[in-house]
Write a structure and sequence with these properties.
Its EC number is 2.3.2.31. The protein is of the alpha+beta class. The protein has helices at 3-8, 11-22, 69-81, 123-139, 146-157, 178-195, 224-237, 250-253, 277-282, 287-304, 397-409; strands spanning 27-28, 35-53, 83-99, 111-116, 171-173, 197-199, 206-208, 212-214, 221-223, 362-364, 371-373, 411-412, 419-420, 428-430, 437-439, 538-541, 544-547. β16 (538-541) and β17 (544-547) form a beta hairpin.
Length: 549
Amino acid sequence: MTEADETSEDDRSVELSSIAAIFPEIKINPESPFKATLDLPVALPSPTKVYFQQPVDVGFPAALTPPTSIDEHKAELDQTAARDVHVLSYLPPVNLHIELPDGYPSEKPPRVQLNTQPPWLPAPILAKLSNDCERLWKECGQDMVVFTYIDHLQQLAETAFGIQDTNDGELYLARDLKIPLLDFNSKTEREKFEQGTFECGICLEPKKGASCHRLLRCSHVFCVPCLQDFYNTCITEGDVDSVKCLAPDCDKNQHPTPAPGSEVQTPRRKKDRTIGPSELLQIPLSTETVQRYVFLKRKKKIEADTNTVYCPRHWCQGAARSKRHPKPQDPMEDDDGSDDDEASPTEPNGKVDEAPSRENRLAICEDCNYAFCAICKKGWHGDLVFCVPRLQAEPTEEEKATEEYFRLYTTHCPTCNVPCQKLMGCNHMRCVKCDTHFCYLCSAWLSPDNPYRHFNEEGRYCYNRLWDLEGGDGENPIGADALHNIFEVDSDDDAPNELFWDLHSSDEEPEPEAEPPRRRHRAPPPAPIPLAPMPPHETRKNGSCVPSK
């Protein structure tokens, strides 16, 4: 019998062949057939908090004073602040080196060596795990023990090899391990995610994780093409508040249910948190689109702040520098502060008694760097000069035309008073700012449970007019010529309220309708069939709606 035949029939080679069939990732040394290497993954059963210890600055010793309870509480806060906490689900694998010596398994146990890279597992625990191999070999009656030992390590890996038991259930690691461990955890999570299959919440089709994106805030999964189409459309149209999770129950899950018997506190109303620019780049969206998104978000916050002071130069009209909304140096930097910050009582653009204090009168435009007074809007004159607020100037022709257009072709939200214009569809509207349901014809608030009840009640001004202006509102709405049959008024007639209808009008005399609500700034044109008379307090002239005298 040759030496090769003896080796093939050796118990050591038989055991290693069996282990290789169970663990295909094992690497057997080609130069020494009885040496092997195996990486054991460490996947925690649940996300675990890992505390990375921060170095404490050593300074000069302070004067010795008797300790107090306040000092003890301060020391606890300082100790908590010095810890950097992260949640990890995966840790770097444990590398196992196995060598089966001559005389194994009857006379000698296997030689094992354990290590981790980076060295996150303490040396005493590694030594204890190495000694477990000989202990298990003796418990098995000095028989084959390699598979039993590997299974033993896999079970201990689920609890991070007991490292939490030595620190009161908390996992403490050195600070220099933070970056490699976070990188490994992120890379492993991405690999596991790409290997899975998920159902997109938008197109409802199963997609591989490689073509999907999991939102960082809520972990909802959508396919990348659906997210790109929706977010690009929202940013192009300026609807930055809709750049958020598209799951309908996402906001409900973020509000925990109070425990039974606990005091119920009214939560402070906050707007939905939008997605950050860094995550939009990961989806990915183009750099130009993300820059526009950041610009529109900041612009909306500045315009919503009643304390914002604008540059008095007509060719600039930029906002003054503000600590509340600083201008970012990086176009990708997003001010992810709270959207519900309460405005201070000072309103520089308001009344005289609400004027800013003397030290806050200096305002500098962030666009043209023009220094001016926040009260009188003139060039900066110093703190010692008495000034009065500038009177409101006469509106320009452009401002008058804009105001007239808003009055004729928009409807204001009954909650936030934002003008809205319908592009198409029915007259059931939802405000893009406050999500209020309202009627486009009369600006009346509608119940979210049954908003169409408003259009089905007889006697109302909007009865049976759900689809008026279906093609949209405006001067020349596309595809809505037939819906804009504007009736005219003969100004020379003795009866100014007598209406002359077009050829599409009905031969029957329509019944008088109820007085419309006074929320709306104008009355919309009626539907072509049947045509109803306008309310008695308004008439039409030259195709536009004007109040009757």
